């Protein structure tokens, strides 16, 4: 098995060897065992299901909440000649239907699914007819309510076990506490499963936590001293622009990134940073997932993250080349207080949640008793402005409405325009002869796209317009005309989150909200906030503090974090003070003031501390008010 796996790795990915744990996980999957893999961000999790799936008969179904990442993986697989498709929110019923048909009857090897699609009876029923070799669950911590990013749609994964009871699960995550590790296995119904853990210790990462009033000044000094490329995480979109402009004004090539930018702009900014045309990217937590840049020398947080899990993932984007790198967290007392305020506002009262649901019905003009199964582009900022409500508690209310099965809400992602012919080649030729105005457009689509009779293919209206030497509007009108004539299906591009009503609209006064779940989530979130505070206040070693949180026993100090450096510096000062004290007292007895005046290292408190320590150890003795060196030492 090992030789075949390695052969596939070399053939499709060009790698000569596996990374640590990859081969062990692959072998467990090939043996048909339920498997949980805990591997850090950038550890090569996708190889763990892609390589064994290529050896097994049937299709591998990959569940992931990250639509942009799914699209990238599908594109990368296709470039390697491996058939793959993705189904996520925002796709039409017809588009989903065609994709599923190809999974049942075609040669598709990988089906990527957003978890929300498992609410659909159509999707579940088609999966029943697929020969499924493996279920791969990415970001598996999302299934646990004890995790930092619980997503209700992940609870639907248990139904996959009912559909294909003999198909193994491979669950993958970068971060999970012992409680979450157990919960993942329970929720997925693991049978005789295995857990593979890569240590949470990153030997090359020098974690730093700095209580700092002048964050911007300290940030500049740090960037100049460390050098290289970096990421700076801030809490909101406004800050991304302000901090990026501050860096530019001080001569550092920088740019900003957040989810509010359109897809093309985000892609351009990301590429500029990846190719080192921009040195520093200032971003919200929307940036980084699935990005593998090896030479990141620092990751700086200017705000306190919501959880240690989120912090570990974001900080872990530094130093993937194995060279020394610096995850740095700067904070002020006001930041600690703001984190707690955000925690309180993320659990709005029940009447507020009911009111948000009522506003949603009005916003999309849905009648009572209607709306089930309808999808809408959803701009949460516009929604909050219209009804004069705060965004932060609104987002929390939407999550609780999703948990109770009223709605589902996907992430914002760019979906290009899609096109598919609905008649066969012969009928299309007859249509071209009869409809000259569509002929050149049809010929261009046939010449530049493959599989357009079987699949929905991505179209770029601007490129078509350029090649045909007509306007963008003309191309769009003709594509819409082909749809109206039922010659083809044309789905315009979108770049917004998708909101689905999973139940018919009810009067908000009769809306069921699971209050016990909300209280439980509140308790879990409170523990996560306290864990962040404990990390900020740690005394011994940052790496040990992180490993302990994730249930990993470790007693060896990392030697490079801020706490270890402080301790080493203190030890060096103590050693030098001890030598000075010995030299001074061997010359004769001295009172405490005389002795203190002769010592050149440390402040007064440190000097007194070392003197008391030497007294306790009887290396110096006090006689008649004078200190003497004990000649026995």
UniProtKB/TrEMBL annotation:
Source species, domain of life: Bacteria
Name this protein carries in UniProt: ATP-dependent DNA helicase RecQ
SUPFAM superfamilies: P-loop containing nucleoside triphosphate hydrolases
Keywords: ATP-binding, DNA-binding, Helicase, Hydrolase, Isomerase, Metal-binding, Nucleotide-binding
PROSITE patterns, per database record: HELICASE_ATP_BIND_1 (PS51192), HELICASE_CTER (PS51194)
CDD domains: DEXHc_RecQ (cd17920)
EC number(s) stated in the UniProt entry for this protein: 5.6.2.4
Family stated for the protein in its record: Belongs to the helicase family. RecQ subfamily.
GO CC terms, sorted: bacterial nucleoid; cytoplasm; replisome
Keyword Transmembrane helix part of the UniProt annotation: no
Pfam families according to UniProt: DEAD, Helicase_C, RecQ_Zn_bind
The keyword Hydrolase is annotated on this UniProt entry: yes
Record GO biological process: DNA recombination; DNA repair
Any one GO MF annotation of this record: hydrolase activity
Domain Helicase C-terminal intervals: 218-364
Enzyme superclass (EC): isomerase
């Amino acid at each position: 098995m090992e030789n075949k796996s390695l052969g596939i790795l070399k053939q499709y990915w060009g790698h000569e060897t596996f990374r640590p744990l990859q081969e062990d996980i692959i072998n467990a999957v090939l043996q048909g065992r339920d498997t949980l893999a805990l591997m850090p961000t950038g550890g090569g999790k996708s190889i763990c299901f892609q390589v064994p799936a290529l050896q097994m008969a049937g299709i591998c179904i990959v569940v992931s909440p990250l639509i942009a990442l799914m699209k990238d993986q599908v594109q990368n697989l296709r470039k390697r000649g491996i058939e793959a498709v993705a189904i996520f929110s925002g796709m039409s019923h017809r588009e989903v239907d065609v994709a599923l048909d190809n999974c049942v009857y075609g040669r598709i090897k990988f089906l990527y699914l957003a978890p929300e699609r498992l609410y659909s009876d159509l999707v579940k029923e088609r999966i029943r007819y697929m020969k499924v070799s493996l279920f791969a669950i990415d970001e598996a911590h999302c299934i646990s309510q004890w995790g930092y990013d619980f997503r209700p749609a992940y609870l639907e994964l248990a139904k996959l076990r009912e559909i294909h009871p003999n198909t193994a699960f491979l669950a993958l995550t970068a971060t999970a506490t012992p409680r979450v590790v157990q919960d993942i296995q329970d929720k997925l119904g693991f049978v005789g499963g295995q857990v593979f853990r890569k240590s949470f210790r990153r030997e090359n990462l020098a974690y730093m936590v700095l209580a700092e009033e002048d964050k911007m000044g300290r940030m500049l000094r740090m960037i100049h001293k460390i050098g290289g490329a970096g990421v700076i995480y801030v809490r909101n979109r406004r800050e991304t622009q302000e901090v990026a402009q501050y860096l530019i004004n001080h001569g550092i090539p920088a740019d900003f990134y957040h989810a509010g930018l359109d897809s093309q702009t985000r892609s351009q900014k990301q590429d500029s940073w990846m190719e080192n045309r921009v040195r520093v990217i200032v971003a919200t937590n929307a940036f980084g997932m699935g990005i593998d840049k090896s030479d990141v020398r620092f990751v700086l947080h200017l705000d306190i993250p919501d959880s240690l899990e989120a912090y570990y993932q974001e900080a872990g984007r530094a130093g993937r080349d194995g060279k020394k790198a610096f995850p740095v967290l700067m904070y002020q007392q006001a930041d600690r207080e703001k984190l707690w305020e955000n925690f309180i506002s993320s659990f709005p009262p029940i009447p507020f949640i009911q009111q948000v649901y009522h506003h949603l019905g009005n916003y999309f003009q849905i009648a009572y008793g209607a709306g089930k199964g309808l999808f809408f582009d959803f701009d949460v900022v516009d929604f909050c402005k219209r009804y004069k409500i705060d965004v932060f508690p609104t987002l929390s209310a939407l999550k609780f409405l999703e948990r109770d099965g009223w709605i589902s809400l996907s992430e914002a992602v760019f979906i290009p325009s899609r096109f598919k012919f609905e008649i066969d080649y012969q009928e299309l030729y007859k249509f071209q002869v009869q409809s000259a105005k569509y002929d050149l457009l049809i010929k261009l689509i046939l010449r530049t796209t493959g599989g357009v009779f079987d699949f929905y293919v991505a179209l770029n209206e601007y490129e078509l317009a350029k090649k045909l030497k007509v306007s963008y509007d003309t191309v769009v009108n003709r594509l819409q005309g082909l749809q109206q004539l039922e010659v083809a299906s044309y789905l315009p591009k979108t770049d917004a989150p998708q909101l689905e009503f999973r139940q018919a609209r009810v009067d908000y006064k009769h809306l069921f909200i699971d209050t016990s779940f909300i209280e439980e989530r509140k308790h879990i979130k409170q523990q996560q906030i306290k864990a962040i505070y404990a990390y900020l206040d740690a005394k011994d070693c940052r790496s040990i503090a992180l490993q302990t949180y994730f249930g990993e026993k470790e007693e060896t100090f990392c030697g490079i974090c801020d706490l270890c450096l402080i301790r080493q510096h203190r030890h060096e000062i103590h050693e030098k003070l001890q030598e000075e004290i010995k030299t001074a007292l061997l010359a004769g007895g001295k009172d405490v003031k005389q002795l203190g005046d002769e010592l050149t290292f440390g402040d007064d408190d440190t000097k007194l501390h070392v003197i008391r320590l030497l007294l306790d150890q009887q290396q110096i003795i006090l006689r008649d008010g004078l200190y003497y060196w004990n000649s026995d030492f």
